[in-house]
Amino acid sequence: MKIGWKSVAWSAAALLLLLSIPTKLIVVTLFLLMVPLVVLYTMLKPIPFLVHAACIGAASFALLGSYSLIPLTFGFFFLIPSAIMGHMYKRRLSARTVVTVATIVLLAQFLVQLTIFSIQYDIDLSAELSGMIEEALKQLQTSGTLLPANWASDAAVSIGDAFVKMLPSLLLLSSFLLAVVTHALSRRALGTMGIVVPAMPPMKNWMLPRSLVLYYLIALILSYAISPDNNGFWGTVAANAVPVLQFAFIVQAIAFFYYLADMKKWPRAAPFLIAIVILLFHPFYLVGLIDTAFPLRRYFTKQ
Q: pTM of the predicted model, to two decimals?
């Protein structure tokens, strides 16, 4: 199969993903959409890549008509980070650098798009979310449950405010997951065509800097010292820093058990099953916190 046919095949894959955005598969599609674009940019020079991207957009518009606005918006949104990742693959940069830069670019785009959308349409995101949540909660209130009269509206406002306050951390985690999934799938796809892309270090070797423990303690103290109703700068920092750092320590806990499984010669499925348990039970982040703060691995090595 010649390189020309390969590029056409990956363009077709990108088109199919764009066409699936208006369907119920949108959540899966968004995590896959960057992969064919990254592969195309890595395979092609910039001008041919832009030609393929334009053909994908034109075909999407021809097939969806007026329904193509949202798919094309998503396609253009992911076009920039995809091109950046493909460019870094061509330069043989490390996987950690690729994932880090892609995460930052995606996060910046999310924030810019959210700002433009809010200003252009004059939308109060907290109020809009509160309204949608209140409608859902009112169904519980009218179903014969013994709930206070204003329970739905009060709960909706609290949930809406909390969501908006934690939006930066949600966007950061979403950007990171998009970058990681795209790198993992793109690397495998490019590998089948003989294009070598640097891999992430083995999970057992992942180690967070010890300074994150100090940052976490500061954020934790702030979260207890500042009222949850405080929507100021420090209140927002505390509300977002704590869950983001706890997620980082969850990843560290998973890495620790991969290291332990390698040391103890456990079955290959053991660390994967443990990782599922860690993701389901949040308090396991403490294992990652301790592994970051103290030399737990050195202790097991001595054993």
A: 0.79
